[in-house]
Design brief:
The protein contains nine helices and 13 strands. The protein is of the alpha+beta class. The protein folds into three domains: 58 residues, Arc Repressor Mutant, subunit A; 207 residues, Bira Bifunctional Protein, Domain 2 (BirA Bifunctional Protein, domain 2); 36 residues. The strands form three sheets. It has a seven-stranded mixed β-sheet, with helices on both faces. Strand 7 and strand 8 form a beta hairpin. The longest helix has 22 residues. The chain starts with a helix and ends in a 7-residue tail after the last strand. Bound molecules: biotin. The site of biotin has 21 residues, from helix 5, strand 5, strand 8 and strand 9. It catalyses: biotin + L-lysyl-[protein] + ATP = N(6)-biotinyl-L-lysyl-[protein] + AMP + diphosphate + H(+). Belongs to the biotin--protein ligase family. It comes from Paenibacillus marchantiophytorum. GO terms for molecular function: ligase activity.
């Protein structure tokens, strides 16, 4: 409903829209309208209300509200230092540069917009202004380089759980780390690392969440495969609340991982997976594989059982469900 109210205001930008008109066109009561306007205000939309004229949309929440973000942050390390930018090529590039100039673990980089957002496997990541969480996190895990896939799966679990908490949508993880709602991608993770003598020097965890995009914000080619939290939940989502919730979830899981290893993370991942026990297809350098996705192994690889009963492990790449 909030989406539809916003669309109505966007038909005649800067004009007042009366409560009566909203009520008639959207078939909702005046009390319900007031409730939705209050929700939109909480998400950062500014409205002016005038007697007999109605409401006017004054500004949209297209700027990170850093004070609000910091005020509600309950983490000890993640997000204790925040760098916020308007338009950047990629928050990953900025985060790498910050590490080179001494940035500590937990530093985060947020941008309103990315002009060259990077996805996995050399793809681009659509990152329009003010609509999403385009964030990079500096991590310095004391684990060997070959543990990177585990950290990727941990990030997916943290993302999935935080989105469930904030948006109450049915969301699941497609191996290794795509978050899907009704089969469409809503969020992605890109981990980039620098290692020395087989140990990780640092990791930049790039998190992309399509939060408040409308269908029109997507290019035609993405509309059938991508979606946003606002489209799926019917609500405008507070980006600040989602970042706070995600960072806390990530910090807790990261502590659990450092203490107990990958086993508990693997169980959580399996419970949220939309991949396991389903038929999948994937292409690998040595050919095309089809089979049933069976389980995750300790390294984070996906075991697939082919129609002939052979067990094949997939370590990287993309799968089709
Ligand atoms: C994927 O392909 O699923 C991964 C997408 C990762 C996108 C995020 S947005 C913030 C960070 N900066 C980037 O350029 N990419 C990551």
């Amino acid at each position: 409903m909030n989406e539809r109210i916003l669309e109505l205001f966007q038909e005649t930008p800067e004009a007042y829209v009366s409560g009566e008109e909203i009520s008639r066109r959207l078939n909702v009561s005046r009390t319900a309208i007031w409730k939705h306007i209050e929700e939109l205000r909480a998400a950062g939309y500014e409205f002016e209300a005038a007697p007999r004229k109605g409401y006017r949309l004054v500004s949209k929440p297209d700027r990170w509200q850093v004070n609000k973000l910091l005020a509600g942050l309950q983490t000890k390390v993640l997000g204790q230092k925040v760098h916020v930018y308007g338009s950047v090529d990629s928050t990953q590039t900025i985060a790498h540069a910050l590490v080179a100039s001494g940035a500590q673990e937990g530093t985060i980089v947020l941008a309103e917009e990315q002009t060259a957002g990077r996805g996995r496997m050399g793809r681009a990541w659509h990152s329009p202004s003010g609509k999403g969480i385009w964030m990079s996190i500096v991590l310095t895990p004391r684990v060997p380089v070959y543990f990177m896939p585990q950290l990727t799966l941990l990030s997916a679990v943290a993302l999935c759980r935080s989105i469930q908490k904030v948006c109450q949508v049915e969301i699941g993880i497609k191996w290794p780390n795509d978050l899907l709602i009704k089969g469409k991608k809503v969020s992605g993770i890109l981990l980039e690392s620098s290692g020395e003598d087989e140990r990780l020097k640092y990791v930049i965890a790039g998190i992309g969440i399509s939060v408040n995009l409308t269908t029109e914000d997507y290019p035609e080619a993405l509309r059938s495969i991508a979606t946003s939290l606002a489209i799926e939940s019917g609500q405008v989502i507070s980006r600040e609340l989602l970042v706070q919730t995600f960072l806390l979830e990530f910090e807790d899981l990261y502590a659990l991982y450092m203490d107990k290893g990958f086993a508990p993370i693997r169980l959580l991942w399996e419970a949220l997976s939309v991949t396991l026990k389903r038929p999948i297809r994937t292409s690998t350098p040595s050919g095309f594989i089809e089979g049933i996705a069976d389980s995750l192994d300790d390294s984070g690889a996906l075991t697939v059982i082919t129609p002939s009963g052979e067990k094949i492990k997939i370590y990287s790449g993309d799968i089709e469900l």
